[in-house]
Amino acid sequence: MSLDIRRAEGLSAEALRLGMVAGFEGYAVPMAPTAEQFAFMMGQRGMVPDASWVAVEGDVVRAVWLVSIREGRGYLIASGTAAEWRGNGIARRMGEASIADLAARGVGTYWTEVLHGNNAARALYDRLGFTTAREFSWYDLTPSGDGLGEICAWGDVVAEAAACRDWEPSWQNSDASLAAVSDGITVVQLRDARGLVGYAAMVTASGTVAQIAVREDARRRGVARGLLARLGALSPKGALRLANVQSDDAGFAAAAAALGAVPDLGQTELRRTL
Question: What is the dihedral of CA 163, 243, 188, 33, to 10 degrees?
Answer without folding.
Answer: 130
